[in-house]
Design brief:
This is M3 family oligoendopeptidase. The chain has 584 residues and is mostly helical. The chain is built from 25 helices and 5 strands. Helix 13 packs parallel to helix 25 and helix 18 runs antiparallel to helix 19.
Amino acid sequence: MNEVWNLEPIYKGFDDPAFARDYEALKALVEKLKTFSGELEGMEPLAGLTRGIALSEELTDLVNKLAEYASLRQSADTRDQEAGSQMGRIMALYSDTAAPLAVFSQWASSLENLQELVAGDENLRDYAYYFENVKKSSRYLLPGMGEEIMARMELSGGSAWADLHSYITSTLPVKYRDKTINLSAVRNLAYDDDAQVRKDAYEAELAAYPAIRDSAAFALNSIKMETISDCKLRGYTSPLDRTLENSHMEKKTLTAMLEAMDEYLPKFWQYLKAKGKALGHENGLPWYDLFAPMGKASTKFTTEDARDYLVKLFSGFDQELADMVAKAFDEAWIDFYPRDGKVGGAFCAGVECLGESRILTNFDGLFTDVVTLAHELGHAFHNQCIRSHRPLNHDYSMPVAETASTFNECVVMAAAIAGAKDKQEQLALIESQLQDATQIICDIYSRYRFETMVFANREQDFMHADTLCGFMEEAQKASYGDGLDPKYLHPYMWVCKGHYYGPTFYNFPYAFGGLFARGLYAQYQQEGEAFVPKYKKLLYTTTVASVEDTAKVAGIDLGDKNFWRSALQTIADQIDLFCQLIGE
């Protein structure tokens, strides 16, 4: 089995004649768009809409293919200078489309009978929701050359700062004991069986950050100030308002979810204190033991083991999903192992030109790594479920983006717990799942609190590293309560996590996805096989409906706090079982 992904089906390399042809085609298309935008005012409405959609579809296909290849190359090795250079060229050229696309959006939004025109034309009907959002978002478009100027400035602004952060964290040397390793490798040691290894790794990680913390602080401040300025220019009331608009999600949904999470935080603190006590700590759980394994589930997995395990498991849920999982392993969709220069964490990227996905992980052979693979393969399955949509209907919003991935985790963990050989294995699996649940509730809530503080302060103040560390600790104390030992927090999580280095509130969708998926899984447990077609339809709907309307496919009202409570209660029940297993 290949250890790295195969990108050659996209391009053989940057010297591939196909890459050059597509880049030239993109250049020509940019000129066509400029010409088209200048002719719009004199065009018949239906002809203008049809031509605009055709050009937009062609643009989406070309840019996705070119940029995805460069991005994947860069993620696999941030030191790949050619990938960085080519990505810069592609995005600079793409920025030239901002103005003509804005002209098209404004023109389409000005048509009084837009809805009727779209509904009455077979070619446009698929884009009813797309045009609904075009009309809704047109009020936030900048006049004149504003969109093109902002797109060009962003290349050397927020996007460049994010690239800097990715580079400095992926190349940061960490002195651990008698050797130097990378950040991903030292963070993986948080899952080690040896308590001293975990503590030493935590201390080594924290000791490494001062070398890059000032650079990271400048990056974070610059990105968030750009976001604040952009929101003011466009007329958004706040960065959170913009995130909700872009997520096609109502504020009442977020409020209901956060209020339910607040109610259940003490239950998570109970779990953390119980785990801390079981590990010999008296003042709550220290950060370095958050991921300490408990019980006995020491099976190490090879990538072949992981493939066989997941294919067999998902065959019991849906054969289409199982076949896709097998294909991902067999046809080199996955880049498995950590290495210098490779970005940390894990992600899945849709490669629309192939109708496939590519997955990056930092696999270390633990069961948690198998769960991570299942998570990313859930994203790939989501991509597969929307593949039949037309090009402009391939983007799902951030909140629903975590649905299929977390649902996959639920399937894996439920099967593993049910098949546990003894009490110790059951404990290990339940505790592993509670680790993940604590991440999407306590940790994500701490990130939400941190981002709220950053946005609230950035307009008046530049926040140096000490200030950001203080905000991080304050957010962690509020979210983890007395469950964590206050002497052992993680003040540098804002440096570690790339999710902060974007223009939006990126983090709360993980809590949404985690809880939404648990609610869906509870339905699956009640309905069995009859649920599967409904689930696929829900995933299919995510790109052509709001978050709230998507949930209605499964009969769920997201504004009802009781739905979120029911999902949280499934975790609370596991916490009770965990405490019972360890005798608390």
